[in-house]
Specification:
Two copies of one chain form a homodimer.
Chain A lengths: L15 H12 L3 E5 L8 H10 L1 H16 L5 E5 H5 L5 H14 L3 E8 L3 H11 L17 E4 L5 H13 L3 E7 L5 H4 L10 H13 L11 E5 L4 H10 L5 E3 L23 E5 L1 H4 L1 H5 L3 H17 L3
Parallel strand pairs in A: 1-2, 1-8, 2-3, 3-4, 4-5, 5-6, 6-7, 7-8
Helix pairs in contact in A: 2-3, 3-5, 3-13, 6-7, 9-10
């Protein structure tokens, strides 16, 4: 029932919302380990490897160490695709390896690529990120992600192919609804003449497209990204998307505070996923402890704080 | 002066707008060959290769044949990143190879990935698509794109790192302003309470961020994607972005007609780039000619029709 979307068991996978809820309950964690490796700030052992074997090997080792250290406190790993692509053409090999490592550590894999394109291209992206593409020359290797982030600027027909592919794989889609960056005011916060903001329109689209994907848990396979930096919007957006799992970036370095996120958890513990990257991987810079120990301690601190909110 | 962004000549590159204008004049073409290979519809020789060597090799061969056949009629190749990523982890290797082939054929390379993310991730995407990333373990291989498409939903601070990286490389950024798909009405056409639409706000952002990048040609290094399917919007959006090179998808299969695109070319021949994919690569399906001959004939037809508009 909790198998990942890349397994072929022959039995249909449970809907994403139910898989997520079960995994959150099992691991007693709503913390998502954000993996966005910066080659200039790798942990020491990985850095040493890099001087001998190059940056791709170093990043792979760094991510493995990070996952090994922190996985016990987390429910998922969020892989920032930009950071793998900047490694050059080998980057997607490293990405696949790190996804496999995260999966083996019991984590759901969230591919954070913020893709968005018209129908046929959207379907191609979905094949790359979920189960691969069937071709006359064999099926290609998909990333096997459990969920992906998608940019809905292009509208419903650009999002639908992602949702169809996710649903077939027991996976989920997280639409950008209100991001955590200051520039989100430029477009997402713009008020519409019919009332509400662009973000509220995006939330309505997420809710509409997710209605057929609500599982027994009450959670849908269409969720949303809502910045932890705007708790006042979180409440309004949650009301527009009562069944959406919400991915909540912006805690820590960007100023968001876990204690302001209670609205996300109205559908239960799995209603919100708190993602943290720099505050975990760089925790040793503050504490002086070994990187893995400091990272785990910070993830455990976040886990306890979030779990207490429901 | 016309060198691509991936060359290291030691002399600063001309701004993208000037490079584009010179290349369009030199090649007497505003046609962009859209390369979005469908493994189920490769040209015959490539397909035969696929049965022996797999889908990645087949797609590489198909793209090479396509470029060799059509390049004489075109000014640029637009690589749809989704179609390379669906090949699995080797996809980015094929992508790099095809970009090199296009460059060698005298084409500008447009990486159509529609990326968009917050500052540090945006910078990582830009490194992947332009000149690579400097790391303590060597500089990674960038794609060397001359221009990229970017999704501006997340706002100005998400777009700025792409523009900074492009400008440093003599390359350009094409913001999604009004896409060609029917779903564009959902968000991009939404009217704002202060007047105008979301697309018009995006156009204003493109114009603002592009002002410092206008070259002697009058063209900026910040352009826009505007669907050829909405000529009535094209006129209004051109007025808001007088210096932006406009990438115009949607001619052919999606219903757009070249003769409706005159507004794009108000800054001159290089003001508009007409991109066509399926109508070129699949032209032999209609004519019965050899794939390469039919593709070239269709590209030449488009070239003549577009050139006549200025």
């Amino acid at each position: 029932l909790l198998g990942t979307s890349s397994e072929s068991t022959g039995t249909p996978l449970a809907p994403f919302g139910d898989r997520l809820a079960a995994r959150v309950a099992e691991r007693r964690s709503q913390i998502v380990l954000g993996i966005d490796p910066d080659p200039a700030a790798l942990w020491p052992a990985a850095g040493a490897l890099g001087h001998a074997h190059g940056v791709a090997a170093a990043v792979r080792e760094h991510c493995t160490e990070l996952i090994d250290a922190v996985a016990p406190a987390c429910v998922a790993a969020k892989l920032q695709l930009a950071c793998f692509e900047r490694l050059g053409p080998d980057g997607w090999h490293v990405l696949h390896d790190v996804a496999a490592t995260a999966r083996a550590a019991g984590l759901l894999v969230i591919a954070d690529g913020k893709r968005g394109d018209i129908a046929v291209s959207a379907a191609a992206y979905a094949e790359a990120l979920f189960g691969g593409a069937p071709t006359p020359y064999g099926t290609t290797a998909g990333l096997g992600a459990d969920a992906i982030t998608v940019n809905p600027l292009m509208g419903r027909d650009s999002v639908a192919p992602f949702i169809a592919a996710a649903r077939a794989a027991g996976a989920g889609v997280l639409l950008l609804v209100r991001t955590s960056n200051p520039g989100a005011v430029d477009v997402q916060d713009a008020p519409l003449s019919g009332g509400g903001t662009v973000s509220e329109r995006l939330a309505a689209i997420a809710d509409e497209l997710g209605r057929d994907g609500v599982g027994d848990s009450g959670l849908s396979d269409v969720g949303a990204v809502v910045g932890a930096t705007v708790p006042e919007q979180l409440q309004r957006l949650r009301a527009l998307m009562p069944s959406a799992p919400l991915l909540l970036p912006g805690v820590g370095a960007q100023g968001g505070r876990i204690e302001d996120l209670a609205a996300a958890f109205s559908p239960g513990h799995a209603g919100g996923l708190v993602t943290a990257s720099r505050s975990i991987v760089g925790a040793h810079g503050q504490s002086g402890a070994a990187p893995g120990d400091a990272a785990l301690a910070e993830a455990e601190r976040l886990r306890t704080a979030a779990w207490a909110l429901v």
